[in-house]
TrEMBL record:
The keyword Electron transport does not apply. Residues 3-175 form the Tr-type G domain. GO terms for biological process: selenocysteine incorporation. This is Selenocysteine-specific elongation factor. One of its GO terms (cellular component) is cytosol. InterPro entries: Beta-barrel_SelB, EF-Tu_GTPase, EFTu-like_2, Elong_fac_SelB-wing-hlx_typ-2, P-loop_NTPase, SelB_WHD4, Small_GTP-bd, T_Tr_GTP-bd_dom.
Length: 642
């Protein structure tokens, strides 16, 4: 039974003896505030270690009973493993008894003990009536089969029996997950002189070591766990289920508040929109309208927001029912799938219901049955379905992020991923990201279709610019995924990257059939006119080519090395340039002047000067004042090229 840690909560009406019972069990007075002492009621959560016969380690939480302190009560019971419903024998079931019972049920508490206190104040007959009254109240709840224990905390009557019952009940309760990622919702923040900021809370999941680097969410503050204490005892390690105080380095008291969450990894979602399954209470005093104001109690957080229904415009509360809906919060919280919550109306104050988080990363959905069906699938889905659904939504995601989004343990997510890989339903991308095979194929097909149309209309062009190809796709797919698709489809010989352009791998630029003859006419004319060509615009206009095709043809001929620009307006056949360069090289010395070139080529100055400047641009010659010198290496390479 070693390394098992549990938290027990006490709930019940004010002045029914919760704090006194805690002291009787633990010898610790949990009323520590001056105001609590003066008013004889608990305002803040009180905590104490309970020693049992076995090595089970137990923390007892004394939660406030007064209705004004209901939020502290909710924060207290949110992380408990066993609850003791405290009912005073002298009063029996009271309003807060009922409200606390509702809240405990809504939070999904499964294990409980009914403790009747102050038994020395009543006779046996009244005690029996109180027990019957309680039994009627808890009928149909998780406490229906719970054992009754009768105690008097002052005289300690029944206290040992209660400890035995607690130990017996806890022996059947699974301990919390100490292997998962660490999470501690903070319910107290204070400073210790010479130590700095200290936070307290019950570790929901995982374990923490002294010296660990942690993060406070939702702020995203990095901190170090400098020192750990469990009930004022210094520890090197804290485990799920333990009430723990952590001295944090790197943060001030003012930067942290109750409701923040201390975590060890990035697996936890910070969100302000959550999809939930809400179990409503019967008999609301006032109907709750669509987008009505609500107060969410989740863990130790208390956040205002609005409720969004997808199958109604009003919640009447005439009957208790389960509703799939969404909460849009005024500020971000930290939660994951399965977390329990309580929903209250801010004004007039009233508990609406409670339930659990279906998806911590809700989005805006349309009103209607389609959304309800989708939420139902989310609620009931298998891990494989949830992973697949999230991949459909996110398109391209790593296992770490996927685990955070679907809110499942790492091993379960990895098993789902492996199953999808085995079935070829998923593709592993770069840097450990994954995409569904169907989405990959979908994107490739969209790109191919787009390029087929583009090539058909622009057959002279090398391809479509990458920016244009991705422009419309970026609206529906992550940029990282699109880059991966382009890279992989190129490896698969489906697409080809040509500089800044993308083309179908099988495509080669060519004259469009409709204009092929006229374009061939242009090429023939360029060959015919040799070095002393008309300006480009004149030649293509005579051929009857449309303006856009004139530009496309020019770029095509230059790109395919069929022509070389003499200047901005004249384009000469590369064949004729090559002949002229060879002739000039053969008939001149290593150094020559403009007049030497004129005698060899017999060109007018209008064409001779730009031709010589072209040789300089091609690095075939180097000009020094009036002379040019042949660059033999560059000349040989250029002549050798096709």
């Amino acid at each position: 039974m070693g390394d098992r840690f549990y938290t027990i909560g006490m709930a019940g009406h004010i002045d029914h003896g919760k704090t006194t019972l805690t002291k009787a069990l633990t010898n610790i007075d949990t009323d520590r505030l001056k105001e609590e002492k003066e008013r004889n009621i608990s305002i803040e959560l009180g905590f104490a270690p309970l020693k049992l016969k076995s090595d089970i380690q137990v923390s007892v939480i004394d939660v406030p009973g007064h209705e004004r302190f209901i939020r502290q009560m909710i924060a207290g019971v949110a992380g408990i493993d066993l609850v003791m419903l405290i009912v005073g024998a002298d009063e029996g079931v009271m309003p807060q008894t009922k409200e606390h019972l509702d809240i405990l049920s809504l939070l999904g508490i499964k294990n409980g003990i009914i403790v009747v206190t102050k038994i020395d104040r009543v006779d046996e007959e009244l005690l029996e009536l109180v027990q019957e009254d309680i039994a009627m109240e808890v009928a149909g709840t998780f406490l229906e089969e719970a054992p009754f224990v009768f105690v008097d905390s002052i005289s300690k009557k029944g206290i040992d029996q209660l400890k035995d019952v607690i130990e017996e009940k806890l022996s059947d309760v699974p301990s919390r997950d100490a292997k998962g990622a660490f999470r501690l919702p903070i319910d107290q923040v204070f400073t210790v002189h010479g130590q700095g900021t200290v936070v307290r809370g019950t570790i929901y999941e995982g374990a923490i070591n002294e010296g660990d680097i942690l993060e406070i969410l939702p702020q995203g503050l990095k901190v170090r766990a400098r020192q750990l204490q469990v009930h004022h005892e210094k520890k090197e390690r804290g485990f799920a289920g333990q009430r723990t105080a952590i001295n944090l380095g790197g943060v001030s008291k003012e930067e942290v508040k109750r409701g923040d969450v201390l975590v060890s990894t990035q697996q936890y979602a910070t969100t302000s929109t959550i999809d939930v399954s809400l179990q409503t209470l019967k008999g609301l005093d006032h109907p709750l309208k669509q987008r009505g104001h609500i107060k969410l109690h989740l863990g130790t957080a208390e956040v205002y927001g609005k409720i969004v229904f997808f199958d109604r415009n009003e919640l009447s509360g005439e009957e208790s029912e389960t509703i799939l809906c969404q909460l849009r919060l005024d500020e971000p919280i930290v939660t994951r799938r399965g977390d329990r919550f309580i929903l209250r109306r801010p004004t007039p104050v009233e508990t609406i219901g409670g339930g659990f988080v279906i998806d911590p990363n809700g989005e805006k959905y349309k009103f209607g049955e389609t959304t309800i069906d989708m939420l139902e699938r989310k609620k009931e889905g298998t891990p494989l379905e949830r992973v697949t659904d999230m991949l459909k939504e996110e398109k391209y995601v790593s296992i770490v992020k996927l685990q955070k989004l679907v809110d499942l343990p790492e091993d379960i997510v990895r098993n789902a991923i492996n199953e999808l890989l085995e079935k070829n339903n998923i593709i592993e991308g770069e840097q450990g990201d994954f995409v569904l095979s169907s989405i990959y194929v979908e994107i490739v097909e969209l790109i191919r279709r787009d390029l087929e149309e583009f090539h058909e209309e622009n057959s002279l062009r090398e391809g479509k610019s990458k920016a244009e190809v991705l422009h419309s796709l970026k609206q529906n797919y992550p940029a990282k995924l699109l880059e991966f698709v382009l890279s992989r489809s190129e490896q698969e010989n489906q697409l080809a990257k040509r500089g800044q352009f993308i083309a179908l791998a099988e495509f080669q630029p060519h004259f469009p059939s409709k204009w092929a003859k006229r374009m061939e006419q242009v090429v023939t004319e360029l060959e015919k006119q040799a070095l002393q060509v008309e300006n480009w615009e004149s030649i293509v206009t005579k051929a009857g080519l449309p303006t856009q095709l004139q530009e496309d043809l020019k770029h095509y001929l230059v790109r395919t090395n069929k022509v070389i620009p003499l200047d901005e307006k004249h384009y000469i056949s590369r064949t004729h340039i090559k002949v002229a360069v060879k002739k000039l090289r053969e008939k001149t010395a290593d150094e020559f002047e403009l007049q030497d070139a004129k005698e060899v080529l017999q060109l007018s100055r209008k064409y001779l000067v730009p031709f010589m400047e072209l040789l300089d641009r091609l690095r075939l010659t180097t000009r020094t004042e009036t002379k040019r010198k042949w660059q033999h290496v560059e000349y040989d390479k250029w002549i050798a090229t096709e």
